[in-house]
Amino acid sequence: AALAGIEAKNGRLNAFLTVSHESALDQARAVDAKRARGEKLGPLAGVPIGIKDALCTRGVVTTAASKILQGYVPPYDATVVARLRAADAIIIGKTNMDEFAMGSSNENSAYGPVKNPWDPERTPGGSSGGSAAAVAARMVSATLGSDTGGSIRQPAALTGTVGIKPTYGRVSRFGLIAFASSLDQVGPFATDVRGAARVLGVISGKDSKDATSLGAPVDDYEGACGKSVKGLRIGVPAEYFAKGLDPEVEASIRAAISELEAEGCVVRPVKLPHTRYALATYYIIADAEASSNLARFDGVRYGLRVEPSGPGKADLKAMYGATRDAGFGTEVKRRILLGTFVLSAGYYDAYYLKAQKVRTLIRRDFEEAFREVDVICSPTSPTPAFRLGEKVDDPLAMYLNDVYTLPASLAGIPGCSVPAKPTASGLPVGLQIVAPWLEESKMFSVAAAFE
Ligand code: GLN
Fold first, then answer.
1. How far is the CA of 392 from the centre of ligand 1 (A)?
2. Which ranges carry the Amidase domain (predicted)?
3. pLDDT tens-digit map of 384-400
4. Is CATH 3.90.1300.10 correct for 2-224?
5. 444 and 221 Cβ atoms separated by less than 8 Å
6. How far is the CA of 231 from the centre of ligand 1 (A)?
7. Which of 19, 205, 300, 310 is 20 to 30 A removed from 403 (C-alpha atoms)?
């Protein structure tokens, strides 16, 4: 049924880049055979799951939606993919995204934009737009995405799905094509909170292949859904209800917070004074790390190679140049240039070092706030889904989409987006719930109580 659904809808939505038709059926037969033998089945037995194309899948083309990785077939699975397989899930295909996860609208994919299933003239958000659209269109009930500065939460908000960004280190990054290593986290999209909780439980936990993965025991996230939220303190930061917030989004989120109050939560204001520096800080740190991570794409090791033409051009450096020129899209080039600039001698102290200091201040804002409250609620995105093409020529307007998701990314703490009341014209709105470090369970309790 999932394969038929993808076949029927993908031409219109472009959510999947690769569909593993035969392999998906083989995997399903293997689960059936296991069941027939009376063997114990894993917690995701038979559930078809789409995987963001930034995650390596053994034997299946993995491009991160870049031309530079055209035709690249990884010889191994990312740890999260291996864990899904071990839970008897079915890896059904690879989802579209912004190239190397850089973007907020999915228009930076080298393989065409993803359309929002609620209105195909609008963006599903980014960078995990394919994963979000696939769930929103019910092609599959769950997918994996990655979130560096909002790339799971923002598309979840714009498509009316549930999206989870775990604590930094909660989920292994082994096999995730790196964008900004100190920020990248893998997480699930699902049609409901419990489904997302189950997938997160499967992919979480220490991985000896990722030194930044955390050894803390994995809580029972699914069990946390349904727990009473009576007396739980919800912080509402005034900084997240400022200029630029769409009035319909604001009304929906204020109503959501009142609903939680009716469930017995205690609502109080909190201050996150360094919020206004988050955008500048993020784009310095993320681009710096990207410029270093993307140096490996040189035409020698993976995917595309372009031989330079013209007399005297047949040297190694010219080949690097020709390959990168043809292989990287505009946004990726912009970030490599910005990242290289902020790391360069003479500018390092003024930009990169300063950004690291401000990152600490942003983290401390949250530590202070969480002395007073259990979770923080806000809009996920300042606007509902905007029109394709609307912001594509204005990188700053595009970057502003992430103002509410970036701070939690910089602080390394968990956040999620759950559907709130849609706008009058029927566009989805997302409620963001942010929790302290490793307190995903609290986030799930609130999310499930609201759902
Ligand atoms: N939109 C942000 C960016 O372009 C975040 C992307 C992400 O989380 N991967 O960097």
1. 14
2. 1-441
3. 999 999 999 898 888 88
4. yes
5. yes
6. 35
7. 205
Asked whether the ipTM of the predicted complex exceeds the cut of 0.95, the reply is: yes
Q: Please list, in sequence order, all residues whose beta carbon lies within 8 angstroms of the beta carbon of residue 330, skipping any fewer than 6 positions away.
A: 108
pTM above 0.95, yes or no: yes
The bridge status of strand 185-190 relative to strand 429-434 is unpaired
Which CATH superfamily does the domain covering 233-279+361-450 fall into?
Amidase signature (AS) domain (3.90.1300.10)
Does any ligand 1 atom lie closer than 6 A to the CB of residue 148? yes
Question: Is pLDDT larger for residue 398 or for residue 447?
Answer: 447
81 in contact with ligand 1, CB cutoff 6 A: no
Ligand 1 binding pocket includes 339 (Cβ within 6 Å)? no
User: Residue holding tokens 């530590």?
Assistant: 367
Enumerate the domain spans of the chain. Answer: 2-224, 233-279+361-450
Please count the CA atoms within 13 angstroms of the CA of 189 that sit on its side-chain side.
Answer: 40
User: Ligand 1 within 6 A of 102 CB?
Assistant: yes
Q: Which of 151, 14, 157, 87 is nearest to 447 (CA)?
A: 157
